[in-house]
Specification:
- The complex is a heterodimer of chains A (226) and B (241).
- Chain A has 226 residues and is α/β, with parallel strands linked by helices.
- Chain A folds into two domains: 27 residues, no CATH class; 145 residues, Nitrile Hydratase, Chain A (Alpha-Beta Complex), CATH 3.90.330.10.
- In chain A, 38% of the residues lie in helices and 10% in strands.
- In chain A, helix 4 packs across helix 5.
- Chain B folds into two domains: 102 residues, Orthogonal Bundle (Cyclin A, domain 1); 115 residues, SH3 type barrels (Roll).
- Chain B has a five-stranded antiparallel β-sheet with strand order 5-4-3-2-6. Chain B has a two-stranded antiparallel sheet with strand order 1-7.
- Chain B is globular.
- The C terminus of chain B is likely disordered.
- The chains are: A alpha/beta (226), B alpha+beta (241).
- Strand 3 of chain A pairs parallel with strand 5 of chain B, so a sheet runs across the interface.
Chain lengths: 226, 241
């Protein structure tokens, strides 16, 4: 990461914040506080291995296995660990279930708390002032702006993750998916549906968790529906 | 502290700007900052509460005008300088230019705090009121629920109280609760129809809805030393209910 362009002759000067980050990195290295390769390993893990494709597997498994779904709703941390997911920001996980009458959505008004092991690192909009300010005050209006127009009789439950619990939404299984396999179902699940700013419908959507045309398992970096 | 970070319920920020096909890191420096935060955690050079508070102490205009990972970078550098691990001069000597730091801590260390009793004080269904807390230090009690009435919806485990942990106090574990607030309780007639908000709150942020009566403040309220870094003097005063 110290030479991301693989070139000591930077074609353009570093921006002020880049220069500050680079200076801190170099200083911690000199003081022996930053092991070689540490940053690359962390970045690679969150770019490649830890992301919403993990949460999609949890959701799909809950859709096909009622006993697992019951365990997930009773003890999210343990049920998610059954599938091998856990770690930083996932020590205490709670899954909240959408139903025809209830829609859940997650926010962190104070900072950016988010269930990393199942959703990866949050998108910028999740961490932005407008989302954090407005989701607790006018969730119905904000969801509509973001493309999710919920019927007036659907209760909206906003979860402000202000303490140690990290939340993920268990979306409703879309209709017409009875014949699909678990991996096929996982491919229908989007990051935004697990945050709660989208619902899964019949419309084609970007996917996570399923194989890409090239056979790789890595999903696209955004599953935005709008 | 009643800081710029405590955004819940504020108006004026406009629409949520969603970036299509957003990468995990937009540039190499963002990954560097994320990795530096991870290594500092591994080296025990930061705890979560102190790190969050270092970000909360950023100049408000800097906070609102800078990208997310610049918050992290500013918080990390501020903490490392405050701990004496690095100096501003060392950083600037490495070509980093000017380093805007967060403002100093204003809250004194917590000198008296009471862990939760073995059993939670509240149960699912308990009617509670959030204390009218305004500590100068770190807290995870958002402004928009202070003084509001809610109902305990879930009792979680005991966790270190961030108000203490962020300021180097002895470990003080308290239960946390998911408290359900009706939209109208929070926002009056302006509330969206059929919207409720759940907020996770530590035990000492809460009192029974009927009030604590003659017994006074909550049994788990805190007492702090006067704020030392600001050179002020004041008698220790309860900051709980």
């Amino acid at each position: 990461m110290s030479e991301p362009d693989g070139d000591h002759h930077h074609p353009t000067p570093l921006s002020p914040v880049e220069a500050r980050a680079r200076a801190l990195e170099e200083l911690l290295k000199e003081k022996g506080l930053l092991p070689e390769g540490f940053i690359d390993a962390v970045v690679s893990a969150y770019e490649n291995d830890i992301g919403p494709m993990n949460g999609a597997r949890v959701v799909a498994h809950a859709w096909v296995d009622p006993a697992y779904k019951a365990r997930l709703l009773a003890d999210g941390t343990a049920a998610i660990a059954e599938l091998g997911f856990g770690g930083p920001e996932g020590e205490h996980l709670v899954a909240v279930e959408n139903t025809p009458a209830v829609h859940n959505v997650v926010v962190c008004t104070l900072c950016s708390c988010y269930p990393w092991p199942v959703l990866g690192l949050p998108p910028s909009w999740y961490k932005s002032p407008p989302y954090r300010a407005r989701m607790v005050r006018e969730p119905r209006v904000l969801l509509r702006e973001m493309g999710l127009d919920l019927p007036e009789n659907v209760e909206i439950r906003v979860w402000d993750s202000s303490a140690e619990i990290r939340y993920m939404v268990l979306p409703e299984r879309p209709t017409g998916t009875e014949g699909k396999s678990e991996p096929q179902l996982a491919a229908l699940v989007t990051r935004d549906a697990m945050i709660g700013t989208a619902r899964l419908g019949a419309a084609p959507q970007h996917r996570f968790g399923g194989p890409l045309p090239d056979g790789s398992l890595r999903g696209p970096k955004s599953d935005r529906l709008l | 502290m009643n800081g710029v970070h405590d955004l819940g319920g504020m108006d004026g920020f406009g629409v949520v700007d969603v970036e299509a096909d957003e990468p995990v890191f937009h540039a190499a420096w963002e990954g560097v900052v994320f990795g530096l935060a991870a290594v500092m955690s591994a080296q025990r050079l930061r705890n979560t509460g102190a790190f969050r508070h270092a970000i909360e102490r950023m100049d408000p205009a800097h906070y609102l005008g800078s990208p997310y990972y610049e918050h992290w970078l500013t918080g990390l550098i501020t903490l490392l300088i405050e701990q004496g691990v690095i100096s501003r001069a060392e950083l600037e000597a490495r070509g980093g230019g000017h380093f805007p730091l967060s403002r100093p801590v204003r809250a004194g260390a917590v000198v008296s705090s009471t862990p939760s009793a073995a059993a939670p004080r509240f149960a699912v269904g308990s009617a509670v009121r959030v204390c009218n807390l305004h500590p100068l230090g770190h807290t995870r009690c958002p402004r928009y629920v202070r003084g509001k009435h809610g109902t305990v919806a879930r009792v979680d485990g005991r966790f270190p109280l961030p108000d203490v942990a962020a300021h180097g106090g002895a470990r003080c574990e308290q239960y946390t609760y998911a408290v359900r607030f009706d939209g109208h309780e929070l926002w009056g007639a302006a509330a969206d129809r059929g919207a409720v908000v759940y907020v996770d709150l530590w035990e000492s942020y809460l009192e029974p809805a009927a009030g604590v009566g003659a017994a006074g403040r909550s049994p788990t309220a805190l007492q702090r030393l006067p704020a030392d870094v600001m050179g002020r003097s004041a008698p220790p005063s309860p900051t709980g209910c």
